[in-house]
């Protein structure tokens, strides 16, 4: 894994390259080789940032890039204290910067920064999908939006030095890969979904037609390595076992490629998956999972990402652990970099 202290560039989801020349007291940023802004830094219990020069890029974009760089550079930094001569309207309206009682001073809070949906999401967020309550199979729940297609999330993981992304599963493109993963003895011992190509085509086709489940492929640097199912908990079999909120999301997780196993990889993809689900609908307050209660390794990985085990319970096919992560807990002292 790269040393974050040695960072000289970050790749943005748009494909642009953010580069820096940084010392203890100064930071100059450029985007695609074009100067972006120059800052004076005062390092103490909090990092104070003073804008010295901004070049031709839009102000909101330049300020966001600087906050991203400084937070990625130091994952322990929780707040940036900005000193600006002019009111940064766009940054204030978006929630990037928060005005303080001190004239010209603004805070950028890590816990808010990582809740801003762009540029991480693969589509423009125009607001929450309107709510209309329905009853499906005796379960009352909101009408769900049409499921997206293609890449839905991307982020350069500064700790891993790789781009982590999520795209929707394409049956024709991913069937053989999914079949190989499910027939791996390691995966089959937990998923119990081994079978033929035709059986797996039927399995995925059923989920594709199900409005409550979204099937996803996880990629590192565009190379598929994992399969995820994200589901709305109110309509799922988990709902009777806890008090599911209208917008709670649940996850099933499968890492298929052996070379992408390990705690540092899990920390990257699991945080990305949860980040996407919290950004996808701001009304989602919890992400839940129900791994097998004896899957100590996966439960341990989830606890490292701030999930907690609320209880154990019995599904018809397994003894499960109810793992829960709340929105506030995820974004509080957010560990994304």
From TrEMBL:
It is found in: Cytoplasm. The keyword Cytoplasm applies. Its main location: cytoplasm. GO terms for biological process: siderophore biosynthetic process. GO terms for molecular function: N-acyltransferase activity. Residues 167-214 form the Acyltransferase MbtK/IucB-like conserved domain. Keywords: Cytoplasm, Transferase. The keyword Membrane does not apply. One of its GO terms (cellular component) is cytoplasm. Pathway: Siderophore biosynthesis. This is Acyltransferase MbtK/IucB-like conserved domain-containing protein. It comes from Pseudomonas fluorescens.
